[in-house]
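Quarterly update from the structural biology core.
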Amino acid sequence: MYAVIESGGMQFKVSEGDVVRVPLLNAETGKKIDIDKVLLLSDTDDVKIGNPYLDGASVTVEVLGDGKDKKVTVFKFKRRTKYRVKTGHRQQFTEVKVAGINPGE
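Predicted structure, tokenized:
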């Protein structure tokens, strides 16, 4: 069984036991939280698609910790004008482990 969930405006395909990096969540390490923005549930033959979300369905995840991704360099350049700007960005994330998928109905 797998599910497609939404977290932080991004979509993730998860199944039980997966470890996923989602955009930063406001949760403590070791805590279990429910994500109720489930877009799709699929069991071997049965597929449920939400509009946009499935009612009653949720995915339980355990928070493993927070961190920052590798630095992404942003370089802006315009020729013949001596315009150069170099900046960097490190996106914050929360690493979660999928504990269970609740189909609801």
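The mean pLDDT is 95.
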